[in-house]
Amino acid sequence: MQTSLSRVLPLRTAVSTSAGLASAAVNFLAAVEVAEYAGGQSAWLAILVAGVLIVFAGANFSELNALYPSAAAIRVWIRRGVTDRFSLISSFVYMMTVVFVIAADAFVLGHAFSRAVPSVPAMLWIFALLALVTWSNSRGIKVAGAVQDGNAFVLLGTLILFSALVILHTPHLSQFQYFNLGHNWFEAIALGIFIFVGFEWVTPLAEEFQDFRAIPKGMFIALGLIAVAFGLFSLALTVAFPHARLLAHSFIPQLLLGLRALGPFGFWWMVFITLTTAGTTFNGGLLSASRFVYALARERALPPWFARLNNRLVPQNALVTLATCSFLLAVLVYVTGQYLFLINAGAGVESLMYALSTVLIISLRRREPARERSFHTFGYPVVPVFIGLLFFGLGAEALLTPTGPSGFPWALVFLAVLTALTAFYVYAVVPRLKEKRRRSSSMTL
């Protein structure tokens, strides 16, 4: 029985996976927040600047992927650049951010579908979508890749077309101020960065691409598509609703935009676009995270049960477990309504990982200067250091942002507890798993 993954994915799936993971339904809410801070119609500019900054983070991940293309991805890079245990702890926490994003996205999707079809319970939609995505993933990497390609390109293409129609349909476009930066310009850029979060999660698929060098190309193309699609969406949103704060407490700004701009046709168009975000985020998240879990189990950082492949070379146990955890957390978030701290925690972890990528670039250049690199990050060492400091600040800001009526930074508390539990697992459980493997290998010999 074959125990390795299948190398069949083309460049287009690198683009669709990178773009799809970042194109979550929660981005529609983020676009409203960007517009509030940017002062209206200049939200598109904040998103564009955020996209440029993310490109530099993408360059860091591209060099790291060129050094060690692996399903374990960040686990391998941190282990070689820092220490083994720090690598395990940070890798586990990083992996869990995918579940956070799916759960937070499910909250937004549930509200959107409830508004469109009130007779069907919101969580039934989420269960059905997660079940469908899990089934398609279990059918093999080609099927999962085709689902990702179809959803991502339909999502971005129709969102661009929809936004362009709304803008062209709006009278008196010359009255708006498209370059009015406002007083909270830096906050707008920080929020704009959230729209791109998750683009780098294509790297755990390195062992399934025909050529791992497709990953950097795919990430950069995806970042451009996301910038255009959500930049145009934010512009359409702000010309249709010049006062973005009117949408501040809505969970369905995209549906309200469709209804105001193009009537019932626009409403159902945005329902369709929202449905495709579920396909891209759920499918891409489970696709990448299941390979990451598989890689950790392969080295006995997780029970070997997670490393088993089905007859289509899919880590099915890892896939089903992640889907189940995502659904249970989605139910909890939907019932409690506490989704903001998950968004902040996810954004904080991602930003800190972007900062850590700079540390890894510098460390590995010093430790392994002669190792071949098919890609080099931009402007080393000045640009990576600047980007690292910037994302460290953004990550700290996201984790310290107050949430809930108490105004307490629950995202920081949540992350601290999660990190403590992960550290306990790494120090207490992982050594036993590895010792068990060592004994099993000795008996075999």
Give a nutshell description of this structure.
Helices cover 72% and strands 0% of the residues.
Q: Overview of this structure, please?
A:
- This protein has one domain: Amino acid/polyamine transporter I (Up-down Bundle).
- It is 72% helix and 0% strand.
- The protein has helices spanning 11-22, 26-38, 43-67, 74-81, 84-116, 122-138, 141-169, 185-194, 214-240, 253-298, 316-336, 340-367, 382-400, 410-428, 430-444.
- It is globular.
Question: How would you summarize the topology of this molecule?
Answer:
Elements: H1 11-22, H2 26-38, H3 43-67, H4 74-81, H5 84-116, H6 122-138, H7 141-169, H8 185-194, H9 214-240, H10 253-298, H11 316-336, H12 340-367, H13 382-400, H14 410-428, H15 430-444
Helix pairs in contact: 1-7, 1-9, 1-10, 2-3, 2-8, 2-9, 3-8, 3-9, 3-12, 3-13, 4-5, 4-12, 5-6, 5-10, 5-11, 5-12, 5-14, 6-7, 6-10, 6-11, 7-9, 7-10, 10-11, 12-13, 12-14
Unreliable runs: none
Domains (count): 1
Shape: globular
What is the level-2 CATH architecture name? Answer: Up-down Bundle
Write the CATH fold name: Amino acid/polyamine transporter I
C-alpha end-to-end distance: 21 Å
- E-strand count: 0
The overall average pLDDT, rounded, is: 86
Radius of gyration: 21 Å
Largest sheet, in brief, is: none
What structural class do the secondary elements suggest? mainly alpha
User: What is the count of DSSP helices, taking H or I runs of 4+ residues?
Assistant: 15
